[in-house]
Amino acid sequence: DGGITQSPKYLFRKEGQNVTLSCEQNLNHDAMYWYRQDPGQGLRLIYYSQIVNDFQKGDIAEGYSVSREKKESFPLTVTSAQKNPTAFYLCASSMGSEETQYFGPGTRLLVL
Amino acid sequence: GQQLNQSPQSMFIQEGEDVSMNCTSSSIFNTWLWYKQDPGEGPVLLIALYKAGELTSNGRLTAQFGITRKDSFLNISASIPSDVGIYFCAGQGPAGNQFYFGTGTSLTVIP
Predict the structure, then answer these.
(1) By the CB < 8 Å criterion, does B32 face chain A?
(2) Phi/psi of residue B17, nearest 5 degrees
């Protein structure tokens, strides 16, 4: 089955901790994206990667970091520098940066 | 970052009614996408539009790429309870490196 998977579904973070959200795709897509969704707002772009070993900051990159060591994987780390991390995080991928994006099921991050 | 104006913000309709929602931008877009999101899930692509004036259907859903390239419309005919969810528009400009998303239209269908 082809698709995008995100894990875990729910994640709890203590104050001052870094946490990493997983995103994997087996669609052979070159481009991958991370979005943050807050209630009543549209999706906001955190980081995107158009090709392996390359990534670009989106609109709200502060307090986040990513890596793209493999084509199928694009993990997102929420660092302790992110002061308001509680949100729903969505990963997406597309064949190329101008192509339609397909989304994973999301990870909900809660700060304790 | 740019955000799209999507309206209405929410809708409560009777089962069987038709639904219309729209999305506007201050910039020209080359691509418009419409997604549906169920609670706690990722958005699912409904319709993709690539040409100004294009009208595309997917079952009971019909979407149009506005002729000015600054807006798009989504219509749902004969709504059913499983249409409940949040509908998002997304647009991509000529630079082609990022999609911008609307704030969503929350649809409730009353049986």
Answers:
(1) no
(2) -75, 160
Secondary element (H or E) of residue B78: none
| % of chain A beyond a pLDDT of 90 | 78
Summarize pLDDT for A63-86 with one digit per residue, the tens: 999 999 999 999 999 998 888 999
> Which residues in chain A are closer than 8 Å to B8, comparing Cβ atoms?
none
| CA gap A34, A44 in Å, rounded | 9
| Residue labelled with tokens 């660092």 | A79
Write the residue in A42, A45, A102 that is nearest to B103 by C-beta.
A42
A8: three-class secondary structure by DSSP:
coil
pLDDT band for position A33 (cuts 50, 70, 90):
very high
Asked if A42 lies within 8 A of B88 by C-beta distance, the reply is yes
DSSP A26: -
Q: So what's the pLDDT on residue A81?
A: 87
State whether residue B83 is helix, strand or coil: helix
Task: Give pLDDT, residue A45.
Answer: 93
Q: How many CB atoms lie within 10 A of CB B100?
A: 21
Task: For strands B105-110 and B85-92, give the pairing.
Answer: antiparallel
B3 sits in which H/E element: none
Set of chain B residues whose Cβ sits within 8 Å of the Cβ of A7:
none
Contact B3 A42 (CB under 8 A): yes
In DSSP terms, B19 is beta-bridged to B76
